[in-house]
Amino acid sequence: MGSLARNVRRLVAVGAGAVAARAAMSAITRSSMARSLDRVNHHGQTVSLKEGPAAAIGASVGAAAGTRKPAHAAAALAAGLGAGAVGLYDDMVGARPQHQAKGLKGHLSALTEGRVTSGAIKIAGVGLAGLIAATLIDADRPIGRGGRWGAVINTMLGAGLIAGTANLMNLFDLRPGRALKVTTVVTSPLSGRGDLAGGVAAGTIGAAAALFKEDLDEQTMLGDCGANAIGALVGLSMAAKSGPMMRGVLLSGVTSLILASEKVSFTQVIADTPVLRELDEFGRKSTRR
Where do the H-state alpha helices sit in 50-116? Predict the structure, then answer.
């Protein structure tokens, strides 16, 4: 693909993601469900979770627009909308007593007690979305020296990477703009590619850019719906450009961060690191007062 065609495709994906995200945000604002999405954030302010569905729709549409094959577009929609849907379910019912559990370990422990939490449903749903997406992007890959079992392992690693990144992004969504900043940092270098990885990354970054203002101003937040969706698409972008070895390395890194979060507060680490703290606080309403 020539540089002109690559740049046009990238702009189309960015634009589609941004336009779809803003259109979805506007539609949700006017809908009857808008008030049910109000929540109280860490500052005690009322914010809306409407950004989550807007991010899921915008990023998924943008990522799909950045692909060149129907199967790849379907993979983007499965990853983003699938992860977003189960995330929205968790946003809506997760506060109920029967669904209460802390962290990945807490949700898995609840399962051993015979209690199915919304978080456990989300984990299973995101895993299924990741598996469908990885299967779709790997379907037209030639079978390598590892044979069919090698291809199966590669797809399972891709599914794990997509699901793991969705979960990890949710762990970053604890302060205004943080998850969107992480998304931008990760997808920016990938979005310059002319392949599937670049198209998915471009669409995702377009949706993120369109939603920054309300998030930083503490008017809206991603919630599990938005964070899981954009995280899954970040994972899809990384999986699209990787073989088994790189997928394994990336999955190991993502898994290590998820496990570390059970014992270490990302927010505290960021607060204790001057450079990260400055980047984390940049653009927030509280720092502009």
Answer: 51-65, 70-93, 103-112
**pLDDT score recorded for residue 7:** 78
Instruction: Specify burial of residue 160 (Cβ count, 10 A radius: 0-12, 13-18, 19+).
Output: buried
Mean pLDDT (whole number) for 125-140: 95
Helix (H) or strand (E) holding 97, with range, is none
The Cα-based distances of 203 to 79, 199, 233, 249 in angstroms read 13, 6, 9, 25
Q: Is the pLDDT of residue 97 over 50?
A: no
Comparing 36 with 202, which gets the higher pLDDT? 202
Q: What is the pLDDT of residues 207-254, one digit of tens each?
A: 999 999 999 999 999 999 999 999 999 999 999 988 999 999 999 999
Task: Tell me the residue length of the chain.
Answer: 289
Q: How many CB atoms lie within 10 A of CB 210?
A: 26
Residue 38: strand, helix, or coil: strand
Distance separating alpha carbons of residues 54 and 258, to the nearest angstrom? 25
pTM summary value:
0.90
Plot region of 67 (φ>0 → left; ψ -120 to 50 → alpha; else → beta): beta
Place of tokens 């400055």: 278
C-alpha distances (whole Å) from 91 to each of 103, 225, 257 are 15, 7, 23
135 pLDDT above the threshold of 80: yes
